[in-house]
Design goal:
By secondary structure, the protein is an alpha/beta fold. The protein has helices at 12-17, 20-23, 27-58, 64-111, 116-119, 124-166, 168-214, 217-222, 226-278, 284-326, 390-397, 420-425, 441-446, 454-463, 467-470, 490-504, 520-534, 546-549, 569-575, 578-586; strands at 350-357, 367-374, 379-383, 405-410, 413-414, 427-430, 508-512, 538-542, 554-559, 562-567. Strand 4 and strand 5 (413-414) form a beta hairpin. The longest helix is centred in the middle third of the chain and has 53 residues, at 226-278. The chain is elongated, with a radius of gyration of 35 Å. The model is unreliable at 1-10 (pLDDT under 50).
């Protein structure tokens, strides 16, 4: 996987160019926005010329017709300015909203497909910050800043040209003085961009902390660490505030320098222009025209300097979003994939050959040279102490990671040769840590198969003995279960998860301590449901409870990432090995 870089892209234009693919679907709207922008800028540039006509011709006209015509032309120009400006505002705002939505969708759809390796080094809170805060900055860039920048550049260029046509001598002077504005603006703009990126990173860190802690409120309160967490969060947001103030100070200084230098140069030139009128070198109308163009140029310079700050922030935001889009998952489909193996009435066969694995963040092997074979329909238990590699084996079967060496075969087909979606559709998992979504009970179970009917959901709930407590909820299956299922007990969460996987009806069932949070009565009921669910499918169980392990067709005992014993419950008890010792410590009837 490509690691994320904290370095700011040295070329802001290159960063903005990377956003062009998001503009391509809206070519017509972009053309219309560009047309309206040019129309508004052109009409604005025509205003000073109209005022010159009024001063030099209209006020000196002998008849009212000349005055009427002159002011009518000015009114028509005003109408074009209003039409062009309003159309530009609507179109660029529309483009900003649409493109921001597309970027959010692209980033989310890209991130959600990443392997767990990506999330080992990336906080979900930081991703949310990029999805929300950074995309808002890009929306401001596309919906406001870009159009304002182009508009002001057109006004600047057009104003300078018209100033040169009106008075070449005065214009040469103003061109020279404008260099005093452009050079410091460019230099200071680079610093603003770096500070903007730093500020956005600090905000993302604060969001990541808040997201993590809000998901652990009961733990925080049980240890009475509320004040500590409040202080920690306050420190994070103070750091973000300091970075934001530094950025704002730099941006304010940039604006001050740009406006002061710009207006100083124009005032200097206009001072000389006043003497030119006194010497009859230009007319009063021409000077008025030159003054108005100078005002337009000054306003354009001020507008560009203001836009530069927004642009630099948006470039920093774009860098961060493009980093996410550039990350490639280490788990990819091959260019040519094989068809999913056919599942017979008994389930699917699983073979693991010389499997070794270590996590990317830790070079120590979690599994070493593991080999085992499971026949279709077999019920296999995996037993071992904590940290032995049991859950890791499940993650490899789901291809959340690829093994360092060795192979995993489903019906003699290497799972790397299968399409990821097809592979994972064959597998159902009931994990130890159950995820309950902020939705009602019906939709939480339907997550197992999104196209399932209500009756199929109800049937799965009954089989998992979840129907009993769901019907007692205030609104039954339509009851909201709270954030992360806070309204449910641990056992109720597990029955929801079991119902979810039963609805999926997979060929391979993985149970990771599926009954660990149940009381004795609930465990008995759910165990009966699981026994029915195990029919006609291969099942792997991670469990310590004797009721589950006793009935397994085969038990693999893992210690330090290696299989140290294999056999049935009765066989392993007699060997006086690790399994026997674990049984004496953990199994309730020993």
């Amino acid at each position: 996987m490509t690691k994320q870089s904290n370095k700011t892209n040295p070329s802001g234009f290159r960063t903005l160019a990377a956003l062009i693919p998001f503009l391509k679907p809206y070519k017509k709207q972009f053309i219309l926005a560009s047309f309206s922008l040019v129309l508004a800028a052109s009409a604005t540039l025509a205003v000073p010329f109209s005022f010159r006509q009024i001063i030099d011709l209209g006020f000196n006209a002998d008849s009212g017709n000349q005055i009427n015509t002159t002011f009518l032309i000015l009114f028509m120009v005003a109408c074009l300015v209003a039409l062009g400006t309003s159309l530009r505002f609507y179109m660029v705002s529309w483009l900003g909203e649409k493109i921001t939505t597309d970027i959010r969708a692209a980033v989310y759809s890209h991130v959600i497909k990443q392997s767990p390796e990506f999330f080992e080094s990336t906080h979900s809170g930081e991703i949310l910050s990029r999805l929300n805060t950074d995309t808002v900055l890009i929306q401001t860039l596309i919906g406001t800043s870009v159009s304002m920048a182009i508009r002001n550049m057109l006004l600047l260029a057009g104003g300078l040209v018209m100033m040169f046509i009106t008075s070449p001598k005065l214009s040469v002077l103003i061109f020279a003085t404008l260099l005093l504005t452009i050079i410091p603006t460019v230099i200071m703009g680079r610093r603003v961009r770096k500070l903007s990126r730093n500020s956005q990173d600090k905000i993302a860190h604060a969001s990541a902390l808040a997201g993590e802690k809000l998901n652990a409120i009961p733990t925080i309160q049980s240890f009475t660490n509320e004040k500590i967490e409040i202080n920690r969060f306050n420190q994070y947001i103070k750091t973000a505030l300091d970075a934001a103030i530094t950025r704002t100070r730099a941006r304010a200084l940039l604006t001050f320098v740009a406006i002061l230098f710009g207006f100083t140069s124009i005032i200097l030139v206009l001072w000389l222009g006043a003497y030119a009128v006194m010497d009859k070198q230009i007319t009063a109308g021409e000077l008025s025209q030159f003054i108005l163009y100078a005002v337009i140029v000054a306003g354009a310079i001020a507008g560009i300097s203001e836009v530069i700050g927004d642009t630099q922030r948006a470039i920093g935001a774009s860098d961060r979003l493009l980093e996410l889009l550039s990350v490639q998952s280490s788990i990819q489909d091959l260019s040519i994939v094989k068809s999913a193996p056919k599942v017979n009435a008994a389930g699917i066969g699983v073979e693991i050959q010389n499997l070794s694995f270590h996590y990317p963040s830790n070079q120590n092997n979690v599994l070493s040279d593991v080999s085992l074979e499971i026949q279709p329909g077999e019920k296999v238990a995996i037993v071992g102490p904590s940290g032995a590699g049991k859950t890791t084996l499940f993650q490899l079967l789901l291809r959340f990671y690829d093994p360092t060496s060795g192979e995993i075969l489903f019906n003699d087909i290497n799972i790397r040769d299968l399409q990821l979606e097809a592979l994972r559709k064959m597998i159902g998992v009931v994990p130890q840590d159950i995820v309950i979504f902020s939705d009602n009970a019906m939709e939480n179970i339907r997550f197992g198969r999104m196209d399932a009917t209500d009756e199929e959901v109800l049937s799965a709930a009954r089989l998992a003995i979840a129907d009993e407590f769901i019907c007692k909820l205030p609104e039954g299956y339509q009851s909201f279960l709270g954030d992360r299922g806070i309204r449910l007990s641990g056992g109720q969460k597990q029955r929801i998860a079991i119902a979810r996987v039963l609805l999926k009806n997979p060929a391979l069932l993985l149970l990771d301590e599926a009954t660990s949070a149940l009381d004795a009565e609930s465990e008995l009921l759910v165990q009966r449901a699981l026994e029915a669910a195990m029919e006609s499918r291969t099942t792997l169980v991670i469990a310590h409870r004797l009721s589950t392990v006793k009935k397994a067709d085969k038990i693999f005992v893992i210690e330090n990432g290696k299989i140290v014993e294999t056999g049935t419950h009765a066989d392993l008890i007699l060997r006086s090995g690790l399994y026997s010792r674990l049984a004496k410590l953990q199994f309730t009837d020993q």
